[in-house]
Amino acid sequence: MIKIVFFSSDQYGAKALEVLKRCPASPRGSARGDLEIVKIVKEKNELESLKNSLPQPDIGIVASFGALIPSDIINWPKKGLLNLHPSLLPKYRGPTPVPSALLNGEKETGLTIIKVDEEIDHGQIVSQFKEEIKANETSESLLNRLFTLGGQALITILPAYLEGKIELREQDHSQATFTQKLTRESGKMDWSKPADYQERFIRAMFPWPGAWTGVKINNQAKRLKILKAHLQKKKLVLDVVQLEGKKPVTWKQFLEGYPQAKIVS
Fold it and tell me: At 71, which helix (H) or strand (E)?
């Protein structure tokens, strides 16, 4: 029985967890071994008491956990921690690899499973796979898919990893690129950018922090989220928007309800 502590604080890491939980029991005598999730850690404040709350696990799995894990926890499981990072490391290290890939117009990305060390997204590579970025992909859809596939990859590699049968490889640190944490202000539309960039920006910012712009209605300044848009003859066409405090509506419905509204930069 492979005993796992799972670290995840959002819906994306939960996709990998769902896959692990669905892993069927292995046949008697199988080399794969059953998986048991002995603890799910969702909050940073759970880390302090973790080692005193349960026996030493075989391994820890980190999937979209929103806090740094201290070295004593990194080294606590018998075989350390493995992290599922949604990029082709060493490219796009840091907190926002998927929005960054979308914004930069990448045609493919992937997921890398690394052995966690004390530097961010720096550890040795255990496994890596590529995944095409589909047309009209949002950060939400791509993250959901990558972490689901990452969970499937874990089921395949874990027995061999625990038995020391996988040769880990160092990242080429000279090729590392880094991403920055998003804030609510990060979603502000820049109307001076080309239309194709704006369209990618809307998809990259969905669902958090959401692309938004200022609008003026009856001389009142408000925020308007842009949830969906498309390109038509190289021009940006808005499809679905949401005025602060209101429900999402089509762009046509918004204009009908607020004919006096003016977008402001």
Answer: helix 71-74
Q: In which order are the strands placed within the sheet that holds 81-85?
A: 35-41, 2-7, 59-63, 81-85, 108-115, 125-132
Q: Structure pTM? A: 0.94
Question: pLDDT for 1-35, tens place per residue?
Answer: 899 999 999 999 999 999 999 876 544 433 345 89
For residues 87 and 112, the answer to whether their CB atoms sit within 8 Å is yes
Cα(73)–Cα(127) distance, rounded to whole angstroms?
22
CATH for the stretch 184-264: 3.10.25.10
CA 83 – CA 71 distance, rounded (Å): 14
Provide the 3-class DSSP secondary structure of residue 175: helix
**Cα–Cα distance measured from residue 18 to residue 253, given in angstroms and rounded to the nearest whole number:** 38
Which residues are CB-neighbours of 40 under 8 A, at least 6 positions away? 5, 6, 8, 17
Q: Are 96 and 69 in contact (CB under 8 A)?
A: no
- Architecture field, domain 2-175: 3-Layer(aba) Sandwich (3.40)
Residue range(s) of every CATH 3.40.50.170 domain in the chain:
2-175
What would the pLDDT profile of 63-92 be if each residue is shown by its tens digit? 999 899 999 999 999 999 999 999 999 999
54 neighbors 20 (Cβ within 8 angstroms): no
Q: Measure the CA angle with vertex 138, ends 132 and 139; round to 5°.
A: 90
